[in-house]
Write a structure and sequence with these properties.
By secondary structure, the protein is α+β, with helices and mostly antiparallel strands. The chain has two domains: 3-107; 118-373, Penicillin V Acylase, Chain A (4-Layer Sandwich), CATH 3.60.60. It is built from eleven helices and 14 strands. It has helices at residues 15-25, 27-45, 49-58, 62-69, 71-84, 88-94, 97-107, 198-205, 211-220, 286-299, 309-316, and strands at residues 8-10, 118-122, 131-138, 147-152, 159-164, 172-175, 180-185, 227-232, 237-242, 247-250, 258-260, 341-349, 356-360, 370-373. An eight-stranded mixed β-sheet has the order 1-4-5-6-7-8-9-10, with helices on one face. Strands 11-2-3-12-13-14 form a six-stranded antiparallel β-sheet, with helices on one face.
Length: 375
């Protein structure tokens, strides 16, 4: 998608009413996306969309967890479904991006897991604020549907901007307090079928005024699947590897920038099939290790103080490995039917009182950036 075509849509009011406005405004695109999602499930996993939706809720307690821990998010989704005139259960299942990485292969009886995203964080210096950066890698059918949603916080006078596609609550985001959050999926970590789905935790985290407040929420909420949370505010940055049952911080050491792809670096709460004594373990996924190595090589010997936004743009646009580049343009190779697509490159510049989001809505090696703020 051409970044200059990126729309920022504002939806005000309580969750149900802003959801209804979202659904009405983007109705035709929501209907189209649900059909494309079903086509993708069929093409990649051989799964009928309706059967996938049935299995997702038959085999999990996600909806009950949402009702218990994130009922306003369900209110907003109900509003979107009503406004777009689409099936609520289908739209709810569509939100489960992180859970789909684990669920779709499991339902199709495939070995392995999906993986997405490369992240880097830089702590604040005397010359620049803290920075959180992510290549958001998802299925290519979503390209062209990117949209930014601007909504009020539900528990304060703050505002939230999220990157999304029509019908979804969010894929990442920042708020007017200068807090930002994104993630890397970690499919090797233990899951919890009764945990809270990640899309709803995102919405709850974006109410946070500070990193400390967000970290407390991450520790407290039961998670549906494993991931690496990537967080920052004006004063600090952090990564937190989170399985369904364990929370393990991953913080900068000696002013070094920290970065992540899709394999655990500190959390040892792995799923049984990935443990060292497990028979017939899935093969290591080349993509995550090759992207990690590429970023490591580019950051080797450098410290956070000497790095800035232009450096991160260059790293996140790199294609040092032709099979599994950091900036992913889609396609396939001999090992993988789809090698991933960078739906957006996001660099959150967490200025106190004036946070800014530098975004390219596509692989950054071929997509221009624009800047979005609350001004």
């Amino acid at each position: 998608m051409d970044t200059m075509e990126l729309a920022v849509l504002r939806f005000d009011g309580p969750p149900a009413s802003r959801g209804r406005a979202h659904g009405e405004t983007l109705r035709s695109k929501i209907v189209e996306l649900i059909e494309l999602w079903g086509d993708n499930l069929e093409r990649v996993h051989g799964l009928d969309r309706r059967r996938y939706v049935e299995l997702l809720f038959e085999r999990s307690g996600y909806e009950a967890a949402l009702a218990q821990h994130a009922s306003p998010v369900l209110d907003e989704l109900n509003g979107i479904a009503q406004g777009a005139a689409v099936d609520y259960q289908t739209l709810l299942a569509f939100q489960h991006v992180n859970e789909e990485f684990e669920a779709a292969p499991a339902f199709a009886k495939e070995v392995g897991y999906g993986e997405a995203c490369t992240t880097i964080v830089l702590g604040p210096t005397a010359d620049r604020p803290a920075i959180v950066a992510q290549n958001l890698d998802l299925a290519r059918y979503l390209d062209g549907f990117q949209v930014m949603l601007r909504t009020p916080c539900d528990r304060s006078d703050g505002e939230i901007i999220t990157l999304s596609v029509p019908g979804m609550i969010s894929l990442n985001g920042m708020n007017s307090f200068g807090f930002a959050v994104c993630d890397n999926t970690l499919g090797q970590l233990r899951t919890n079928p009764n945990g809270v789905p990640i899309f709803a935790i995102y919405r709850l985290l974006l109410e946070a005024r500070t990193l400390i407040e967000a970290r407390s929420l991450i520790q407290r909420l039961p998670h549906a699947v494993g991931l690496n949370w990537v967080l920052g505010d004006a004063g600090s940055v952090q990564m937190i590897e989170r399985s369904a049952y364990e929370t393990v911080p991953y913080a900068p050491v000696h002013q070094a920038p920290i970065f992540h792809t899709n394999h655990p670096l500190t959390c040892t709460d792995w799923r049984d099939e990935y443990r060292t004594d497990a028979p017939n373990k899935p093969r290591p996924a080349r993509s995550t290790y090759l992207r990690f190595a590429a970023v490591h090589q580019r950051l080797q010997g450098r410290i956070s103080n000497e790095l800035g936004i232009d450096d991160l743009k260059e790293i996140l646009a790199s294609q040092d490995d032709s099979d599994y580049p950091v900036s992913r343009g889609g396609g396939a190779n001999q090992e993988d039917q789809q090698i991933g697509f960078t739906l957006a490159c996001n660099i959150f510049e967490l200025r106190k009182g004036d946070p800014r989001w530098h975004i390219a809505t596509g692989p950054p090696h071929r997509t221009a950036f624009t800047t979005v703020s609350f001004a």
